[in-house]
Design a protein that fits this description.
The complex is a heterodimer of chains A (187) and B (255). Helices cover 42% and strands 2% of the residues of chain A. By secondary structure, chain A is mostly helical. Chain A has a domain at 8-65 and 115-184: Non-ribosomal Peptide Synthetase Peptidyl Carrier Protein, Chain A (Orthogonal Bundle). In chain A, strands 1-2 form a two-stranded antiparallel sheet. In chain A, β1 (147-148) and β2 (156-157) form a beta hairpin. In chain A, α1 packs across α2 (44-58), α1 (8-23) packs across α5 (121-132) and α3 (67-75) crosses α6. The radius of gyration of chain A is 18 Å and the shape is globular. Chain B is of the alpha/beta class and 255 residues long. Chain B has a single domain (8-245), classed as 3-Layer(aba) Sandwich (Rossmann fold). Chain B contains seven helices and nine strands, in the order βαβαβαβαβαββαβαβ. Chain B has a seven-stranded parallel sheet, sandwiched between helices. Chain B has a two-stranded parallel sheet with strand order 7-8. The chains are: A mainly alpha (187), B alpha/beta (255). At the A-B interface, α2 of A face α2 and α6 of B.
Chain lengths: 187, 255
C-alpha cells in the first residue's frame, strides 16, 4: 500500500510549471499526451532542467538514466540497442510492459534517437508518482507514522520534522527491471 | 570604439550558455557572427533565432547555421555557408560540446565514440575547414575548455576531451605560427549555464559553494575577446584559466 500524500494532479501542475519556466511554453498547450520533444521542442538539457525543478518541488531524485541505459548496464551492451543504434525486440517488449498505453508508438527496430520523443507529460508524471509511492509507512528518523505536507509538494514528518526520504528514480528502475526479469526472463 | 568591426567570427554551439555570451560580446565589438547550433527544430534553434535578431539589432550581419560538428559533411556545409555569405573568417571559437554524464568506465562503446567524435574530431574538422580562411585574415582560434581538463569532476568524461584539446591547442599554435594564426584556449571554472544544470545533478551540494566562485558566461567571453583583440597579440599556445581563483588555492575558509 502506498503512503504517498501527493496527488497526481499536483504533480501534473508542477510539471506544467516546470515546462513553462524551462521552455517558455504556453501552459494551456500542455496535456498529458503532449510529447515534450515533438510538441514543445524540448532538448536533452531541457529535460534535466525540468527534472531538477520537479526534484526541488517534491524533495525527490529523478532517474538520471533512461530505462534503456539501465537494461544495458544490467544485461550488457547490445541488450537494448544493437550496433546500428536500433532498439532490440527485447527492449521493446520491456518498454511496452513499462509504458504500455503511454507510448503507443513503440515498435521493434526503431532508432534509439526516436525514443526520447515518446516521453510525454504523462510518462514524466508517472515517473514522479512511482518515486512518491516509495514513501515508507514510518519516518526512518523517529519511527512514527505522521507524514504531512503543508504545500502539497514536500512531505515532512509531523512528529520529528524530518523531510521524507524517497527511493531515487534510478534505484526504482533497477528494482523494477530485476523484478520483471525474474518473472519473465526476457534477457 | 568597436574593435572587431568588419571581422567575422564563427562560434560553434552558440545558441546557449557560454557560446551565446561570446557571440554577443563579439557582436558588441562589431564582428559579424555565424551562430551555430546542432539540433534542428528544438529549443536550441529557437534560442539561436532570438540571438540572431539581437545581433542584427546591434548592426552586425549574422547567420544561423545548423550543423553537427561531429559529422565531417555537416562541418563542410557550415563552412560553405560561411564562404558564400561572408567570404571570410577571422575567428574560430570552438565552443560546442556534448557528452554523457557518467563515470568513464561505465560508458558504452557508442557513448565513447560520440564523446570523441563531437568533442575531439569535431573540433579538428572545424580547424581543418577553417584554415584556408584564417590564413588569409591571419585569424585566431580559441578553444573553450574547462577545469575538468585537469581536475576530477564527478561523472564528467568530457574532461578527458578538454585535456586532449588543450594539447591540440599547444600543438596547432606551433604548427600554424608560420601562417600567423594564433591558437589559444580559455579554461572556465564552474559556469552557471545550462550545462551547470547537468552538473548539479551529479554534484550534491554544489550550490552551497560560495557564490563568488561561480563564473559568469560574460567573464569567459571577455577573455576570449581579449585573446582575439590586438591586446592579446603576444599570446599563443596558452590556456588561460578563468575561474575566479577556484583552482588557485587549497585553502577554504570553514567559518
Amino acid at each position: 500500500m502506498s503512503h504517498n500524500l501527493i496527488t497526481e494532479e499536483k504533480v501534473f501542475q508542477e510539471l506544467k510549471k516546470a515546462i513553462v519556466e524551462t521552455l517558455r511554453a504556453d501552459e494551456n498547450s500542455i496535456r498529458p499526451g503532449t510529447s515534450l520533444i515533438n510538441d514543445i521542442g524540448a532538448e536533452s538539457l531541457d529535460f534535466l532542467d525540468i527534472n531538477y525543478r520537479l526534484e526541488q518541488a517534491f524533495g525527490i531524485k529523478m532517474a538520471r538514466h533512461f530505462v534503456l541505459e539501465h537494461i544495458e548496464e544490467m544485461f550488457g551492451e547490445g541488450a537494448a540497442i544493437d550496433e546500428n543504434g536500433l532498439l532490440t525486440e527485447k527492449a521493446i517488449e520491456l518498454l511496452k510492459i513499462r509504458f504500455g498505453d503511454n507510448m503507443p508508438d513503440l515498435k521493434p527496430g526503431m532508432d534509439m534517437d526516436e525514443v526520447p520523443a515518446l516521453v510525454t507529460a504523462q510518462s514524466i508524471v508517472q515517473g514522479v508518482m512511482d518515486i512518491l509511492d516509495s514513501l515508507p509507512e514510518k519516518c526512518p528518523a523517529c519511527g512514527n507514522s505522521a507524514w504531512k505536507s503543508d504545500d502539497g509538494g514536500k512531505v515532512k514528518c509531523g512528529s520529528c520534522g524530518e523531510n521524507a526520504v524517497y527511493t531515487n528514480g534510478d534505484d526504482l528502475i533497477k528494482e523494477w527491471l530485476t523484478k520483471v526479469q525474474e518473472e519473465k526472463n526476457i534477457f | 570604439m568597436q574593435t572587431l568591426k568588419d571581422k567575422v567570427a564563427l562560434v560553434t554551439g552558440s545558441s546557449r550558455g557560454i557560446g551565446k555570451a561570446i557571440a554577443r560580446k563579439f557582436a558588441m565589438e562589431g564582428s559579424d557572427i555565424i551562430v551555430n547550433y546542432r539540433k534542428a527544430g528544438g529549443s536550441s534553434q529557437t534560442q539561436a533565432e532570438e540571438l540572431c535578431k539581437e545581433i542584427e539589432k546591434m548592426g552586425c550581419r549574422t547567420r544561423m547555421v545548423q550543423a553537427d560538428i561531429a559529422l565531417k559533411n555537416s562541418v563542410k556545409n557550415l563552412f560553405n555557408e560561411i564562404r558564400e555569405n561572408f567570404g571570410r573568417l577571422d575567428y574560430l571559437i570552438l565552443n560546442a560540446a556534448k557528452a554523457p554524464f557518467k563515470p568513464i568506465e561505465k560508458l558504452f562503446e557508442r557513448e565513447l565514440r560520440q564523446l570523441v567524435e563531437t568533442n575531439y574530431l569535431g573540433n579538428i574538422f572545424c580547424i581543418q575547414e577553417a584554415l584556408p580562411l584564417l590564413e588569409k585574415t591571419r585569424g585566431a582560434i580559441v578553444f573553450i575548455s574547462s577545469l575538468g581538463s585537469r581536475f576530477y569532476n564527478p561523472a564528467y568524461p568530457l574532461g578527458s576531451m578538454k585535456a586532449a584539446m588543450e594539447s591540440v591547442v599547444r600543438d596547432c599554435a606551433e604548427s600554424l605560427r608560420v601562417k600567423q594564426i594564433s591558437v589559444n584556449a580559455v579554461c572556465g571554472g564552474i559556469v552557471k549555464t545550462d550545462s551547470f544544470k547537468v552538473l548539479r545533478q551529479f554534484w550534491d551540494g554544489i550550490e552551497a559553494l560560495p557564490e563568488e566562485l561561480f563564473v559568469e558566461p560574460d567573464e569567459i567571453a571577455d577573455a576570449v575577446f581579449f585573446l582575439c583583440s590586438s591586446a592579446g597579440r603576444g599570446i599563443n599556445g596558452q590556456t588561460i584559466v578563468v575561474d575566479r581563483g577556484l583552482s588557485n588555492s587549497i585553502y577554504r575558509s570553514t567559518v
